[in-house]
Amino acid sequence: MSTLTNLTIAEARNGLAKGDFSSQELTESHIAAMEAARGLNAFITETPDIAQLRAKASDERRAKGEPAGAMDGIPIAIKDLFCTEGVLTTAASHILDGFVPPYESTVSANLMNAGAVMLGKTNLDEFAMGSANITSYYGNVINPWKGKGGKDLVPGGSSGGSAAAVAARMAMGATGTDTGGSIRQPAAFTGIVGLKPTYGRCSRWGIVAFASSLDQAGPMTRSVRDAAIMLGAMAGHDPKDSTSAPLPVPDFEAALTGNIKGLRVGVPKEYRIDGMATEIEGIWQQGIDWLKDAGAEIVDVSLPHTEYALPTYYIVAPAEASSNLARYDGVRFGLRVPGDSLDDMYRNTRGEGFGDEVQRRILIGAYVLSAGFYDAYYMKAQRVRRLIAEDFKKVFENVDVILTPTAPSAAFAIGEKMDDPVAMYLNDIFTVPASLAGLPGISLPASLNSDGLPLGLQLLGKPFDEETVLRAAGVLETAAAFDGRPA
Amino acid sequence: MSYILAGESGDWEVVIGLEVHAQIISKSKLFSGSATSFGAEPNTHVSLVDAAMPGMLPVINEECIEQSVRTGLGLKAEINLTSVFDRKNYFYADLPQGYQISQLYHPIVGEGTVILDLDDGSTREVGIERLHMEQDAGKSMHDQDPKRSFIDLNRSGTGLMEIVSRPDLRSPEDVGAYLRKLRSILRYLGTCDGNMDEGSMRCDVNVSVRPVGEAELRTRAEVKNVNSVRFAMQAVEIEARRQIDVYDDGGQVVQETRLFDSVKGETRSMRSKEFAHDYRYFPDPDLLPLVISQEYVDAIKASLPELPDDRKQRYMSDLGLSAYDAGVLVAEKETAAYYEEVAGGHDAKLAANWVITNLFAVLKDKGVPISESPISAAHLSQLLDLMADDTISGRIAKDVFEIMAETGKAPAAIVEEKGLTQITDTGAIEAAIDQVIADNPGQVEQFKSGNEKITGWFVGQVMQATGGKANPGAVNKLLRDKLKS
After folding, report:
1. B438 in the same domain as B413
2. Contact A332/B51, CB-based, under 8 Å?
3. Of B418, B436, B470, which residue constitutes the final position of a domain?
4. Which whole number is the average pLDDT over B433-459?
5. Could you tell me which chain B residue has the CA closest to the CA of A241?
6. Which of residues 146-185 of A touch B (CB under 8 A)?
7. pLDDT digits (tens, 9 = 90+) for B155-168
8. CB-based contact (8 Å) between A320 and chain B?
């Protein structure tokens, strides 16, 4: 049974179709894996009962000969930022104590309608704010990969629980959300595939908001094909989200032709940062060579405003967050810590309910939006954001995809960088620019470093051109033939 | 007609600008599908969006856009084809999102004009600075429990139009005329019911004073909680007087929000400057800029009803009514509709008189609006018919009208029932005249000795004898002939 957990979604789909095994068997083996790996703290809430019911229903549909959905019978995990009807939803925050939504997010509903089986809700950085999954009220997530001497490592963040669950074979795939790199960076840290679609490709309805103009849901899987399958089930126009794009969903899997002859791949010089680790530079060059060997044309490109992306992001995202998180006030749901007056109640509830990182970002956000500072910070950041987007637009007139490393390092140990928020923010240096421009990006595992830890490569694409990104990623995946897996 | 207040040091002029919040008439709220209605059980018209549940997103209600554009066109204002929603951030228990979605930087409607109809029949233009859409908050109820406040979110998220005037108003009368005119326009357009007592139209009054002759504006105070036209007028008077006293005492007026207390007849400070909110406005990232086409605006323009100013002009030029009468008749859409039904096929001025003088007296007496008039427009029109075809005299008509007011019956039925049909048969009138002359030789003598004025007395006697039914014209003529003979 344990071999079932090693299958990709595509393989499991074929096995289910052929009747090699049932969804109930597949699900049971994942439930067992989830229980066995509790030490990683990847899940905040396990929902084995729901999983069993849904697996049974899938098997029954299949037995009746009903057409199978794209994810029919496939056990997956849902990041605990997606509201799930009747199931505790926490955003890994104390402030959402006991919050059980009476509604289902559009993305998770789309997955369930495609037949997916939910195993549980995965851990994350509180309100998706973090790059190491160390800010969760429910504790750190531990990377299934171990450092030297068996040292515990961070899984990256904020979708660290989803990344750990997929890497450790607890789930075949998981939803993530990416605001500045929260899908791609943990995917790189745990040796899996993480795809952030174009802003507007997946509905944000029912996802606890962090930064509305940046948040985007995407799949985390163990293969590029799986990412294509899962994205197809998640995406689509949603009239309930005004920023959702009214576009049809392409057949992403069909884009995986394996042929990238003549594809123009941009390599941005600004991503070659000072003091870049040799292993990162090495894997980047390796990626370039792989693509070249497959017939792609490599083009040196320039994205001149790259260095401003991180400071811009850390104005825009906290500004939106400071406003988005105002609704957690103890009045209608979640935690309430009483006080002598309304203001006292707010202070007590938000003081106890939010962790340090969330409070830090609320303060930064309130500051940059405040009278007298708005023009200097928020307005300026919006202007720089436009320049960053224009950089990409110009480059994409000449190239089809851009290749960069996903993160400046492999996974680091729990405890590192913890007392220096700025050092922590630097984790997102390669992922944030595309987030600001709303572009699709994928991270896939390319190789192991000298410590035996996975390193990721990132491909960025044009708006709503996930197909080309996936096609190029498929070729890289084949070339890399990454077969590392955590112990 | 200028409104000048005397202070210790000299005369003061009052400068007023109004911010009116008008609840948009729409089936559902500005950004959610919940129903908008007044008086429902608390928290029964609340969607997940209105309650600001995690992950919920606003989606603009197209009906509210249309209503706002319609209102902008009614205010002769420029319509901005691109407008942007901003978040106004502040914490309050009845504001679930922790911010109000509004339009600070790029409102949907720009500059426009409202024409005031003043009591003396003259008119004056007041500038409109802008109109923008925004969400209403819920309602806090502090009187339900000794320790806790209760929240009703029915109103939360309802669409409002904030209509901001220029500081062009100079007196309480101006304020009254402006509010009444604005309400009239909104009602004609069908974009807001204008019911101040139900809170569907609310206003904040910005007041400052300056010595007569000074050109610069001085510091203003914003007076809130003014929920009727009368209170708005009172608030101006009271606040202007307070500010003049402050200046006379050598003090300075501070920019602040003040609360109007109609019971105590005062305004008092709500929030001083150091507690002023920093609303941290920024564009709402959940909503795209609102872009509408000129064709869309033109289509709405083509569907606009005749508005009070145009209708007043028509009553004056086509129907020959005075500015005052026309102004009175068009002020309320219902009155104008009533008047037009009565006036159809009749003398327009006569119809106006009946409505303004007689009908208004009945309505005032009974304390009902014209929509609940005991006399329907059709009945009043029939009454004019009966006068026009000489079935009854004007005098009898007044009696019939009174009976109509009491019973609601049709005039023809009343005339029939009471036998009030006018006597035009000369034989019958002559007989009555002969009798009066025979009975009053003394008065006949006076007439003959040159007192022509006594004719009126004779007419009265004849009318009395015929129960008022004799045709007054015929009585006059026959009486003179007979007295002279």
Report:
1. no
2. yes
3. B418
4. 86
5. B57
6. none
7. 999 999 999 999 99
8. yes
Q: Three-state DSSP class for A160?
A: helix
Q: What domain count does chain B have?
A: 3
Mean pLDDT of chain B: 92
Indicate whether this complex's ipTM tops 0.85.
yes
pLDDT, position B277 = 79
Same domain, B313 and B431: no
Query: Which residue shows structure tokens 């103009």?
Result: A213
> Distance (Å) from the C-alpha of residue A347 to the closest C-alpha of chain B?
11
* Residue A79 is a catalytic residue: yes
Q: Per-residue pLDDT for B97 more than 60?
A: yes
**Cβ separation B282–A323 shorter than 8 A:** yes
Please check whether residue A378 touches B, CB under 8 A: yes
Confidence grade of residue A215 (pLDDT, cut at 50, 70, 90): very high
Q: Let me know the angle formed at the C-alpha of A314 by A311 and A316, rounded to the nearest 5 degrees.
A: 110
Residue carrying structure tokens 């999954």: A133
pLDDT at B483 over 90: no
Interface test with A, best of B135, B282, B287 (most A CBs within 10 A): B282
- Of chain A, the percentage scoring pLDDT greater than 70 comes to 100
Q: What confidence score (pLDDT) does residue B461 get?
A: 87
A69-82 average pLDDT score: 98
Cα separation, A382 vs A369, whole angstroms: 12
Answer yes or no: do A331 and B55 touch at CB < 8 A: no
* Torsions phi, psi for B325 (to 5 deg): -60, -45
| Domain CATH number, residue B436 | 1.10.10.410
- Together in a domain, B118 and B179: yes
Both B52 and B100 in a single domain? yes
Residues B408 and B350 in one domain: yes
What number of other Cβ atoms are within 10 A of residue A284's Cβ?
Answer: 23
Q: Are residue B52 and residue B187 in the same domain, yes or no?
A: yes
Residue B392 makes CB contacts below 8 A (sequence gap 6+) with B386, B400, B415, B420, B421, B422, B469
Interhelix angle B62-74/B172-189, nearest 10 degrees = 130
Name the maximum alpha-carbon separation found in chain B.
Answer: 100
pLDDT at A379 over 70: yes
Of B271, B276, B282, nearest in space to B89 by CA: B282
Count other Cβ atoms within 10 Å, centred on residue B320. Answer: 13
Residues 6+ apart with CB under 8 A from B274: none
| Residue A216 near residue A204 (C-beta atoms within 8 A) | yes
Residue contact A342–B48, C-beta within 8 A: no
Question: Which residues are CB-neighbours of A481 under 8 A, at least 6 positions away?
Answer: none
Name the nearest CA neighbour of A43 among A136, A156, A165.
A165
User: What are the E-state strand segments in B284-394?
Assistant: 290-291
pLDDT in tens, B293-337: 999 999 999 999 999 999 999 999 999 999 999 999 999 999 999
Q: Is A380 a catalytic residue?
A: no
Question: How does pLDDT run across B285-303, given as a tens digit for each residue?
Answer: 999 999 999 999 999 999 9
Looking up tokens 């691109």 gives: B82
**In B145-242, at which residue ranges do the beta strands (DSSP E only) sit?**
150-152, 159-165, 201-211, 221-226
Where a domain ends, among B230, B265, B300?
B300
Pairs of CB atoms within 8 A across A/B:
100
DSSP letter at B357 equals: I
Q: Are B57 and A99 in contact (CB < 8 Å)?
A: no
The C-alpha atoms of residue A377 and residue A319 are separated, in whole angstroms, by 10
Residues B410 and B270 both lie in one domain: no
> Residue B401 belongs to what domain range?
307-418
CA distance B481 to B485: 6
Task: Indicate whether B332 and B265 sit together in one domain.
Answer: no
Q: Find chain B residues with C-beta within 8 A of A339's C-beta.
A: none
**pLDDT band (50, 70, 90) for residue A2:** low
Q: Nearest Cβ partner of A346 from B91, B96, B286?
A: B91
